[in-house]
Amino acid sequence: MLLLLVLLLAAVSPAAKAQDAGRKVVRVGWFDSSFCYWDDFGRRCGIAYEYQHRIAAYTGWTYEYVEDSWPNLLKMLMDGKIDLLSDVSYKPDREEFIAYPDLPMGTESYYIFIASENREITADNPASFSGKRIGVNQGSIQEGYLKDWADKYGVSLEIVPLLTEEDNSMDMVIKGRLVGLFLRGE
Q: Where residue 98 falls among pLDDT bands split at 50, 70, 90?
């Protein structure tokens, strides 16, 4: 009886239906960000989502989404546990694990976000960041950019590698556990 139930569930699962139809099931990393989010009606949306579905229109792929934080999803991608992840900047040491497209999805700018009531840090004075705790996604290219920026301006700051979702990281800034958060900007 249990075997029959398992076979029945496998037969009606979306992945099984796609495979039966000869369509490739691609496991896609899904993380909360400004280009990968849920709308007010509970639907996936954002530029990454739209881009991925343009690809599916040409390839016939069916997507199975895996939700987690970006740093955890990057590890899953590098370990072969997911097939596709947006917002992965090119780094030579990743080439062994990641097949990058010939054309980039877009370009990025990076910013340090601070709480609106913070009056200690000013954009025109890099030294105002000295001694501050700034969070950044662990293993991201932004982590290296933040280190390079600090070195360039002689700023001694504490870089805090994060494994949390973007909303949780922002909450750390609001609650004062971090002074700032280094992220891709809009």
A: confident
Q: What would the two tokens of residue 59 be? A: 């390839």
> What is the full DSSP assignment across 81-114?
S-SB-SS----GGGTTT----SS-S----EEEEE
pLDDT of residue 107: 74
**Residue 104 covered by a domain:** no
Number of domains within the chain? 2
User: What is the predicted pLDDT for the residue at 185?
Assistant: 56
Q: Are residues 124 and 173 in the same domain?
A: yes
CATH number for the domain including 20? 3.40.190.10
For the cut 50, the answer to whether the pLDDT of residue 2 exceeds it is: no
Q: Is the same domain home to 24 and 74?
A: yes
| 154 belongs to a structural domain | yes
Start-to-end CA distance of the chain, whole Å, equals 53
Q: Which secondary-structure segment (H or E) carries 55?
A: helix 47-59
Q: At 34, is the secondary structure helix, strand, or coil?
A: coil
Side-chain-side CA neighbours of 141 within 13 Å: the count stands at 12
179 close to 122: Cβ distance less than 8 angstroms? no
SS3 62: strand
Name the β-bridge partners of 65.
28
